[in-house]
Amino acid sequence: MEKDEKKIVNEDEEDEMEIYGYKLCRWKLVLVAVGVLCTGGFFLLLLYWMPQWRVKATCVRTTLKDCGVVLLRTTDEFRIWFCAKIRILHSWGPSPLQNPPCIADKVSSGHLYESLAEENRNYPHKYFPIRYFTHHSVKYFWNDAIQSFDVKKGLDEFTSCSSIHNEHSTGLTKWVHEHRKVFYGVNEIGVKVPSIFKLLIKEVLNPFYIFQLFSVIVWVTDEYYYYAFAIVIMSVISIVSSLYTIRKQYILLHDMVAAHSIVRVSVGRANQEIEEILSTDLVPGDVMVIPSNGTIMPCDAVLVSGTCIVNESMLTGESVPVTKTNLPNPAEHPKSAGDEIYSPEAHKRHTLFCGTNVIQTRFYTGELVKAIVVRTGFSTSKGQLVRSILYPKPTDFKLYRDAFMFLLCLVVVAGAGFLYTVVNSILNKVPAHTIIIESLDIITITVPPALPAAMTAGIVYAQRRLKKIGIFCISPQRINICGQLNLVCFDKTGTLTEDGLDLWGIQRVENGRFLLPEESACSESLVKSQFVACMATCHSLTNIEGALSGDPLDLKMFEAIRWILEEATEEETALHNQIMPTVVRPPKQLLPESKPATDQEMELFELSASYEIGIVRQFPFSSALQRMCVVTRVLGEKRMDAFMKGAPEVIASLCKQETVPVDFETILEEYTKQGFRVIALAHRKLESKLTWHKVQNINRDAIESNMDFMGLIVMQNKLKQETPAVLEDLHKANIRTVMVTGDNMLTAISVARDCGMILPQEKVIIADALPPKDGQAARINWHYADTLTKCTNSAPAINSQDIPVKLVDENLEDPPLTKFHFAMNGKSFAVILEHFQDLVPKLVLHGTVFARMAPDQKTQLVEALQNVDYYVGMCGDGANDCGALKKAHGGISLSELEASVASPFTSKSPSISCVPDLIREGRAALLTSFCVFKFMALYSIIQYFSVTLLYSILSNLGDFQFLFIDLAIILVVVFTMSLNPAWKQLVAQRPPSGLISGQLLCSVLSQILICLGFQTVGFLWVKQQPWYEPWTAQSDACDPAAAANASASPHGNDTEHDEHNIKNYENTTVFFISCFQYLIVAIVFSKGKPFRQPSYKNALFVVSVIVLYILTFFIMLYPLESVDSLLELVCVPYQWRITILIIVIINAIVSVLVEEALDRWRGCFLSSLFGCRGKIPKAKYMHLAQELLVDPEWPPKPRTTTEAKAAPPENGSCQVITVT
Question: Is 341 helix (H, G, I), strand (E, B) or coil?
């Protein structure tokens, strides 16, 4: 049936979802109403918590075309359900980017109505009902073509560059603008701060608080007023603090987004008029005029005329001005490759992104700097960032899954207790009212009310400790996950190495040959050379408030030649019909000094003294192209010059072959292997027919060809002082380190060796993957980095020493250590991802250097590592790392700028020493969570046993007994045992990732059995005492004679009857034993080394436990009538009190010895308990490492090739053929 067909929205995107159509059903609504009434509203709560049940209970399935409600389910591992109501809006046409017929007719006839409202009144039949729903701040509209809902895109998809210039650059009419606004809505990233009442209702309806409400009702019914009141106070404090935190976060985000979100902007209309409107009224297709003094961009827009200098720190984290140029018009370049489809990512050098700061503009007189709006609201780059903060993906961590499973186990235990209580009470003919109350009470005892607060305490304390050492966290739940990190990816420049580069030297080329390296380019002999002219002009530097700003590499290069840069002022530009070029000139002291004798020589001297170069056109640096280019003109010369700089391999490929030295690759490799950053320069004299106007419209491909290779600039990027020591600490802790950089691969390998990421004796295998070409399959050529140059001329026999050796580590928890590492660049990584999927896990298992990686490839690498079960950390300086920082389990930004909002952690200090600090705190917080969970589980089980034993004699714990246990003991212990600081150094051992592990289960189960055993011993032994008798109001075991007289008295039976049977010898015995058991398990479970400092260093915990021990001893050994009366304890002989003390001491000794034995001999014990079979590792990467140990074909041998051959269609995979 059509209605059963499954549709997908946002296909192949991060927020891909399945969508199902439903419509309301009246008879189902009636049944639901009856169910709600019968269950006292609980069924309604259940439907509130489970959206899929709510929809299925009130609606029937139908096609998406006819539905009134949609049910959505994410396709990721979480499979979360959402529902949304279908709404209808009315428009003149079905599509926002196509002019509806009525508008086209009215425009052609010259008759237009004043507004959409007037048109609607006169032509109501021309309304198009458009069905849509809103999910996570995005509108999904019905699309007849695909018979499903989709997002209406702006001009960011399926719009060609030529149509942007030809169709969209004229501006919109008011009617088209109003038509589009119906679809796109208000251009605003609206972060609504929910009202306190709304937040309160949402918080109170949390299942945990509903359970607490249920517990309080049960306790009040059973007259446990004090305890119920205490829990209510705790819940109120918890709700208020939670509301305060949530509302504060909303307000912070709202204020961050609201700043500059509404500004007045000028837009060009189709009739050439400039209209001033609010930025909230902008729609895709509007032509926005960028003011000369700059602005904060309220939308994503593509530049179609002029140039802008923009600070993109909000997006990239790098506070470096970027030059944005106008989008080239393919129609003006007949020789260009063809008409491209515009994409904000591919054309980011021409795109102004929302939230970025336009510092200044450069423009023609009479031709304003214009940009066409392509995306608005939440569709913009800033909007998507805000959405990712507003609607984060849930954290998938084994601890939380196991905690949920453990709670279910407690519920099962509670169910058993419930049945036992009911059966026992019926057999003892207890009134029905009491049976109901007591059986429900056992459920409230089993699931501890303070559990969520207790679990959060360790994380909150860890967050505070991190803040003290300059690490700020916006996602506290991630701290626990950082305790499991076993692999950390590092960006290179600015992270492992110093941010700035120093000019080491230059090596020029003349007549196709390298000259000797020179230390400085700043000399009289070179001042007028093309090499220095390229260094002076080929950059994106600009003067901002009198200081040079721009890319640090450009800045270092320009400072090295000591030239002067001057930019035209706004007034100077206004006097000319063209943009006044930026001018660079050398300082006068560098120009040749001579005293001319003749007039002719004087003229030449004047010309030389005013040697200036104007930058006529700039093609900014593109990370995709790995180069930048400028067109310049020397003052007084007619012909223009083109200069280009960039990655040496790319520049050499665009130069005339005869100008590139034969030993180019050898020289380049020598530099890169030593860790230098190398940049190549090239030059070309342009044809005299190229005028200034032609240059402004020419395609960069026409300029960047047939260049003359000029030589290399060699920059030195020094390692940060702390880098080797930090990486050594991580290696000692069995944490893998990986380098992910945009730099040259051999440079990256050299830096990896220098910092200890790759040891001197270890081999590096370079995977050079080539895509399919000319009928040949995709292939990977395997080279060994140290033998790369040796094998260019000849192919000697393979030395057996070159082949890496596999070493198996005895510790099976970690992958076998090997003496080889893989290295590859971004292009190879892309080919391997597409054509060699089977090899990806093998390569990432030992991949250490990933060079020339684009930002999205960094994210793909993190994902590939996570797919083989690594817990991945990512440390970057914020620039280009945002995606990877968000994707990683623990992303640490070394930038304090606004981009750090994308990273869970931000370090105040730009040093990687924050990485081991974060992992140490994560491990401490994780161990604290385990300790607290184990303690809370034991607390609920101990109390459950106490109550169950007392129920067998129709007794219970008293109200103030519960109060003493829960408030005086449990809360104090829980919140102080979480205070242990992290251990001072990282160790190779890692804490377990989940609660359901052999060691933890054995620990919990053994303590449960010990506590159960000693409570049972005390409960049964008291009945064997000679003074024991069923307790009555006249009983007094401390003074039997007085008790006998009281019972003989004629008024002896007038004493008030104990309705709940709280006062008895069994209750007193069980109460004392259980109080000590809570303190015993708190000490036993409060683990220290190797992840936390020892408990004796936690002063508050030590003092709390000692005070509680003294208090409990005092109550037990030195009874006061007022205390006994308050706690409803009965007097027992002193000998029995000593006996209880002995029971407690033996209990403590046994608990400590068993836990110590489990810690010390857990390996032997667990292997004998579960059999001595070989351990099969759970993590995919460990399993794969073991498999590869016995694979004779792995690692690939030097100078071999692996081809991907298409398999038969029904298989769908690929065969790997190795060719030697």
Answer: strand
Please determine, for residue 604, whether its predicted confidence score (pLDDT) is greater than 60: no
**CA dist., res. 1182 & res. 812, Å (int):** 8
Q: Which residue has the tokens 């009874």?
A: 1119
Dist CA 26 CA 961 (whole Å): 52
pLDDT tens-digit map of 215-241: 888 878 877 777 778 778 877 877 887
Taking Cα atoms as reference points, which of 458, 476, 463 lies closest to residue 975? 458
Interior angle at CA 897, CA 896 and CA 903, nearest 5: 75
pLDDT one-digit tens code per residue, 572-585 = 444 444 456 778 88
Any idea which fold 475-501+721-758+819-904+1176-1207 has?
Rossmann fold (3.40.50)
* CA separation for the pair 123, 597 (Å, rounded): 88
What secondary structure does DSSP assign to 513-530, as a single string?
A: EE---BS-S-STTTTTSH
Residue carrying the six token digits 């008024």:
1051
CA distance 838 to 844: 11
Residues paired with residue 289 on neighbouring β-strands, in sequence order: 266, 370
For residue 1176, give every residue at least 6 positions away whose Cβ sits within 8 Å of its Cβ, in sequence order, or none: 1183
In the block, tokens 């050594």 appear at 728
pLDDT for 815-829, tens place per residue? 444 478 999 988 889
Determine the Cα–Cα distance for residues 183 and 376; give it in Å rounded to an integer. 11
Residues of the chain with CATH 1.20.1110.10: 927-1032+1062-1170
Q: Which CATH architecture has domain 264-390?
A: Distorted Sandwich (2.70)
CA dihedral 85, 90, 91, 93 (to 10 degrees): 70
Report the DSSP beta bridge partners of residue 370: 289, 305
CA 492 to chain CA centroid, nearest Å: 20
Mean pLDDT of 1104-1120: 91
Angle formed by the axes of helices 1099-1117 and 1065-1085, nearest 10°: 160
Distance, in Å, from the CA atom of 167 to the CA atom of 331, rounded to the nearest integer, reads 12
Write a three-state SS string for 99-168: CCHHHHHHHHHCCCCCCHHHHHHHCHHHCEEEEEEEECCEEEEEECCCCEEECCCCCCCCCEHHHHHHCC
Strands (E), 313-419: 321-324, 351-352, 357-362, 370-375
**Of 1012, 970, 974, 997, residue with least CA distance to 1158:** 997
Token representation of residue 118: 């007037």
Quick check: 338 and 405 in contact, CB under 8 A?
no
Confidence of residue 792 (pLDDT cuts 50, 70, 90): very low
In the chain, CATH 2.70.150.10 sits at 264-390
Residues 1028, 1065 contacting (CB under 8 angstroms): yes
**Could you tell me which of 716, 652, 643 has the C-alpha nearest to residue 678?**
716
- pLDDT for 100 equals 66
- Cα(513)–Cα(518) distance, rounded to whole angstroms? 15
Q: What's the pLDDT score for residue 1150? A: 94
Tell me phi and psi for residue 622, to 5 degrees.
Answer: -120, 125
Task: Say if residues 70 and 84 touch (Cβ distance below 8 Å).
Answer: yes
Which pLDDT tens digit goes with each residue over 870-925? 889 988 875 456 667 877 888 888 866 544 556 778 888 888 888 999 999 888 88
Of residues 1065, 984, 996, 1007, the one with CA closest to residue 1032: 1065
Residue 932: which of 436, 516, 488, 453 has the closest Cα? 453
- pLDDT at site 606: 46
pLDDT band at 812 (very low <50, low <70, confident <90, very high): very low
End-to-end alpha carbon distance in the chain? 55
Give the integer Cα–Cα distance in Å for 455 and 403: 10
CATH fold of 520-588+611-711, please? Calcium-transporting ATPase, cytoplasmic domain N (3.40.1110)
Query: Helix, strand or coil for residue 814?
Result: coil
Amino acid occupying residue 764? V
> Cβ atoms within 10 A of the Cβ of 942, count?
24
Hey, is 81 helix, strand or coil? strand
Give the active site residues. 491
